[in-house]
Design a protein that fits this description.
Blueprint (H helix, E strand, L loop, with lengths): L3 E2 H7 L5 H9 L3 E3 L2 E2 L6 E2 L6 E3 L2 E2 L7 E6 L16 H4 L7 E2 L8 E7 L2 H8 L7 E8 L4 H9 L2 E2 L2 E2 L4 E7 L3 E8 L6 H8 L4 E9 L2 E2 L8 E3 L2 H10 L20
Parallel strand pairs: 9-15
Antiparallel strand pairs: 1-4, 2-3, 2-5, 5-6, 7-9, 7-17, 8-9, 10-14, 10-15, 11-12, 13-14, 15-16
Helix pairs in contact: 1-2
The structure holds uracil (URA).
Uracil binds next to helix 6.
Length: 256
Amino acid sequence: MAEQRLQKVLASAGVASRRKCEELILEGAVRVNRKVVDKLPAFVDAERDIITVNGRKIRAEPKVYFLLNKPKGVVCTNSDPAGRRRVIDIVRSKGRIFCVGRLDVDTTGLIMLTNDSELTNRLTHPRYGLAKTYVVRVKGEIGGGAVEKLKKGIWLSEGKTGKASVKILRRSHKESSLEVTIRQGLNRQVRRMLARVGHKVVSLKRTHIGKLGLRGLGTGKYRRLSGSEVGYLKRVTGVVGEGAKDKTTGRTIQES
Ligand code: URA
């Protein structure tokens, strides 16, 4: 586990707000491994260091990891001014959790929720390039030329998208279904890629995040990730083990 700011660890353990925790530190109320720490910044390993506040030991908030099969019409933000149903209204968890990345309100399928901000940052960072697979239904018959363009990368306002894997699942004059795997997470990326090759998306569903799939999860259902699934995500993003490989250079990524 990487080191984190002391006030963040205190706040996520429920001691007080981050600001108030900073005050407690500066007042000399906090000890780390028996030594008073009264200067900032201060960094700790929440899983290894013994931290006390006014003599009381604090417990690091246990990390939780969920996979949800998101229904249509539910939003991935934790605060929605329009008052729509949020994914965090579906998943019951004691502490604060948040989505790893986003699915549009109309997109269905696999979304992960957690309180682990370090893993979230890595999973959503483009350089770790975890594969995300979508089944997309579009209007009209998709041609070979469009599929080739999608595979090679499409120019969007942010630049050219990375290489994609594309498989045609069904095709008729009226509608086509494709399986598209991408390694980036640009806003509305799949919809915009399909729009660029002239096809309007009828429905979009994420079926896989890396090797994690939807199997056994009905719409609106969720489950906790197993220890080995969490281990897998930590390994592929370099939180544990040798470190992740940069998809473009093939080199092991060093955290900056
Ligand atoms: N691409 C999209 O267009 N929408 C999503 O929700 C996810 C990927």
